[in-house]
Amino acid sequence: MQTPKNIIQKIWEQHVVHQEEGKPDLLYIDLHLVHEVTSPQAFEGLRMNGRKVRRPDLTYATMDHNVPTRERHIINDPISKKQMDTLKQNCQEFGVTLADINHPDNGIVHVIGPELGLTQPGKTIVCGDSHTSTHGAFGALAFGIGTSEVEHVLATQTLWQAPPKTLNVKVNDKLGTGVTAKDLILAIIGKFGVKFGTGYVIEYTGEAIRDMSMEERMTVCNMSIEGGARAGLISPDETTVEYLRGRRHVPQGEAFEEAAARWKALATDEGAVYDTVVEIDAAEVEPQVTWGTNPGMCIPVTANVPSPDSTDKASEKDEIQRALEYMGLEAGQPISSVKIDHVFIGSCTNSRLSDLRKAAEVIRGKQVDPSVTAIVVPGSFSVKLAAEKEGLDQVFKEAGFEWRDAGCSMCLGMNDDIIPSGERCASTSNRNFEGRQGKGARTHLVSPEMAAAAAIAGHFVDVRKFTAQEVM
Amino acid sequence: MEPLRIHQGLVCPLDRTNVDTDQIIPKQFLKRIERSGFGQFLFYNWRFDDDGNPNPEFPLNAPQYKGASILVAGENFGCGSSREHAPWAVQDFGFKVIIAPSYADIFKNNCVKNGILAIQASEEQVQTIIEKAQSEGYSLTVNLEDQVVSDNEGFSFTFDIAPYPKEMLLNGWDEIGVTLTYEDKIKEYELARA
Question: Looking at this predicted complex, what is its ipTM?
Answer without folding.
Answer: 0.94
